[in-house]
Amino acid sequence: MTLSRKLKTLMVLAAFSTAPAALPALAAGDAFEGEKLARTWCAACHVVADDQQRGSEAVPSFAAIAASPGRTEENLQVFLVDPHPKMPDMNLSRREIADLVAYILNQKK
Fold it and tell me: Closest Cα partner for 93 from 47, 41, 45, 39?
Protein backbone atom coordinates (compact mmCIF):
# COMPACT_ATOMS: atom_id res chain seq x y z
CA MET A 1 0.00 0.00 0.00
CA THR A 2 1.44 3.36 -0.98
CA LEU A 3 1.88 6.19 1.50
CA SER A 4 -0.97 8.17 -0.06
CA ARG A 5 -3.32 5.17 0.24
CA LYS A 6 -2.28 4.70 3.87
CA LEU A 7 -2.95 8.36 4.62
CA LYS A 8 -6.31 8.17 2.84
CA THR A 9 -7.25 5.10 4.89
CA LEU A 10 -6.22 6.78 8.15
CA MET A 11 -8.24 9.88 7.29
CA VAL A 12 -11.28 7.76 6.49
CA LEU A 13 -10.96 5.86 9.76
CA ALA A 14 -10.81 9.14 11.63
CA ALA A 15 -13.82 10.51 9.75
CA PHE A 16 -15.92 7.41 10.35
CA SER A 17 -14.92 7.18 14.01
CA THR A 18 -16.46 10.63 14.58
CA ALA A 19 -19.30 10.33 12.06
CA PRO A 20 -21.74 8.34 14.24
CA ALA A 21 -21.92 11.12 16.83
CA ALA A 22 -21.93 13.95 14.32
CA LEU A 23 -24.01 12.35 11.54
CA PRO A 24 -26.11 9.45 12.84
CA ALA A 25 -28.09 9.14 9.58
CA LEU A 26 -24.88 8.48 7.66
CA ALA A 27 -23.70 5.87 10.13
CA ALA A 28 -26.91 3.86 9.83
CA GLY A 29 -27.14 3.75 6.06
CA ASP A 30 -30.20 2.99 3.95
CA ALA A 31 -30.23 -0.62 2.77
CA PHE A 32 -32.85 0.13 0.09
CA GLU A 33 -30.57 2.74 -1.49
CA GLY A 34 -27.63 0.39 -0.98
CA GLU A 35 -29.40 -2.28 -3.00
CA LYS A 36 -29.76 0.15 -5.92
CA LEU A 37 -26.03 0.89 -5.76
CA ALA A 38 -25.18 -2.81 -5.51
CA ARG A 39 -27.25 -3.71 -8.54
CA THR A 40 -25.69 -0.85 -10.52
CA TRP A 41 -22.03 -1.08 -9.49
CA CYS A 42 -21.43 -4.53 -8.01
CA ALA A 43 -23.68 -7.09 -9.72
CA ALA A 44 -21.37 -7.51 -12.72
CA CYS A 45 -18.95 -9.40 -10.46
CA HIS A 46 -20.68 -10.14 -7.12
CA VAL A 47 -23.95 -11.94 -6.53
CA VAL A 48 -25.68 -9.13 -4.66
CA ALA A 49 -29.19 -10.58 -4.19
CA ASP A 50 -31.03 -13.88 -4.01
CA ASP A 51 -32.75 -13.24 -7.35
CA GLN A 52 -29.47 -12.73 -9.20
CA GLN A 53 -28.67 -15.71 -11.39
CA ARG A 54 -24.89 -15.39 -11.59
CA GLY A 55 -21.77 -13.42 -10.79
CA SER A 56 -18.09 -14.11 -11.09
CA GLU A 57 -16.96 -17.26 -9.33
CA ALA A 58 -13.71 -15.47 -8.46
CA VAL A 59 -15.40 -13.06 -6.02
CA PRO A 60 -17.57 -13.65 -2.95
CA SER A 61 -21.30 -13.02 -2.90
CA PHE A 62 -22.61 -10.24 -0.69
CA ALA A 63 -24.08 -12.92 1.61
CA ALA A 64 -20.61 -14.48 2.00
CA ILE A 65 -19.04 -11.08 2.63
CA ALA A 66 -21.65 -10.29 5.29
CA ALA A 67 -21.14 -13.66 6.97
CA SER A 68 -17.34 -13.39 7.09
CA PRO A 69 -16.00 -13.78 10.64
CA GLY A 70 -15.18 -10.41 12.15
CA ARG A 71 -17.11 -8.49 9.49
CA THR A 72 -18.18 -5.10 10.85
CA GLU A 73 -19.80 -1.98 9.49
CA GLU A 74 -16.57 -0.08 10.07
CA ASN A 75 -14.23 -2.47 8.24
CA LEU A 76 -16.59 -2.59 5.25
CA GLN A 77 -16.72 1.21 5.16
CA VAL A 78 -12.94 1.46 5.21
CA PHE A 79 -12.60 -1.19 2.51
CA LEU A 80 -15.04 0.58 0.19
CA VAL A 81 -13.19 3.86 0.54
CA ASP A 82 -9.92 2.22 -0.47
CA PRO A 83 -10.82 -1.00 -2.36
CA HIS A 84 -8.24 -3.57 -3.40
CA PRO A 85 -6.69 -3.24 -6.87
CA LYS A 86 -9.02 -5.68 -8.64
CA MET A 87 -12.05 -3.59 -7.70
CA PRO A 88 -12.77 -0.35 -9.53
CA ASP A 89 -12.38 2.85 -7.54
CA MET A 90 -15.99 3.98 -7.61
CA ASN A 91 -15.35 7.17 -5.61
CA LEU A 92 -18.46 6.58 -3.52
CA SER A 93 -19.63 9.32 -1.18
CA ARG A 94 -19.75 8.64 2.55
CA ARG A 95 -23.54 8.37 2.25
CA GLU A 96 -23.30 5.85 -0.59
CA ILE A 97 -20.76 3.81 1.37
CA ALA A 98 -23.04 3.76 4.42
CA ASP A 99 -25.99 2.69 2.24
CA LEU A 100 -24.01 -0.04 0.50
CA VAL A 101 -22.66 -1.35 3.80
CA ALA A 102 -26.17 -1.44 5.28
CA TYR A 103 -27.32 -3.49 2.30
CA ILE A 104 -24.35 -5.88 2.42
CA LEU A 105 -24.81 -6.52 6.14
CA ASN A 106 -28.52 -7.21 5.55
CA GLN A 107 -27.52 -10.07 3.26
CA LYS A 108 -26.12 -12.11 6.16
CA LYS A 109 -27.96 -15.41 6.35
Answer: 41
**Cα 96 → chain centroid:** 9
pLDDT tens digits for 26-54?
458 999 999 999 999 999 999 999 999 89
Please check whether residue 107 is in contact with residue 50, taking contact to mean a CB–CB distance below 8 angstroms. Answer: no
**C-beta separation of 27 from 97 below 8 A:** no
End-to-end CA distance of the chain: 33
pLDDT in tens, 90-101: 888 999 999 999
Q: Cα–Cα–Cα angle for 98, 70, 41, nearest 5°?
A: 35
